[in-house]
Amino acid sequence: MRDSQRSRVYKWEEKLFSDHGLKKSIVNFDECMSLKECNKFASKIWNTYKNKFYRNYTDKLIRVTRVKCSNNNGGRNALAYSGFYSAHRFAKSDTKGRKLYYKKMQLPKWARSKHIIIHEVAHFLCHNDTQHGRDFVGVYMFLLNKYLGFTFRAMQDLAYEMNVDWSMSDSKYLNRAFRQACKPEIDAYVSELKGGK
């Protein structure tokens, strides 16, 4: 399946990051997060939202509680690997008989920052065939608002301006969470309009 808006999403996020004083890649490696911090942050997001926006796996059969970040193969790109991984040839089981797995992310030093980790975890939380499609952008916007405080209005205006398609309507949970997260922005905007009259 063709990833039709990949380059537009990359340009959109680069402009979004620069508007918020962030760079897409870290130049000074003293500022990058350690792999342990990356694992902790990525696992926190994964454990909070796995199977909530979209069905990522059947939790009656397997248990996936962590994200493992590494750059063992020396890759230059940040990647969210699809699928589930086990440290052992035969996956260990928990007390309920579920197999224990983890998610895998490749993070070179330039990508060890919260905003890049959020991008990659957003891939985990969508269907495998979503790539950089409208559902991915919706999940990504929600996570940027939740963890970095980016306003929905700024993200949506910029997405509209740069012709980036996004949606939060395919997932009932995401749609509800989006409306709840937007409420303070909408209330502030309405009061601004009322105060201007």
Distance between the termini: 50 Å
The helix-and-strand class reads mainly alpha
What is the makeup of the main sheet?
3 strands, mixed
Q: How would you sum up the global shape?
A: globular
The ordered H/E elements are HHEEEHHHH
Runs in which pLDDT lies below 50 for 5 or more consecutive residues are none
Bin the strand percentage. 5-15%
Radius of gyration: 18 Å
| E-strand count | 3
What order do the strands of the largest sheet run in, or round the barrel if closed? 1-3-2
The oligomeric status of these chains comes to single chain
Helices, by number, come to: 6
Mean pLDDT score: 83
Q: Level of helix content?
A: 40-55%
Q: What is the number of domains?
A: 1
Explain how this protein is built.
The protein has one domain (6-195). Helices cover 45% and strands 10% of the residues. It is built from 6 helices and 3 strands, in the order H-H-E-E-E-H-H-H-H. The protein has helices at residues 6-19, 35-49, 114-124, 134-148, 152-161, 172-195, and strands at 62-70, 79-80, 99-106. Helix 1 crosses helix 5, helix 2 (35-49) packs across helix 3 (114-124) and helix 4 (134-148) packs across helix 6 (172-195). The mean pLDDT is 83.
List keywords for this structure.
single chain, mainly alpha, 6 helices, globular
Topology summary:
Blueprint: H1 6-19, H2 35-49, E1 62-70, E2 79-80, E3 99-106, H3 114-124, H4 134-148, H5 152-161, H6 172-195
Parallel strand pairs: 1-3
Antiparallel strand pairs: 2-3
Helix pairs in contact: 1-5, 2-3, 3-4, 4-6
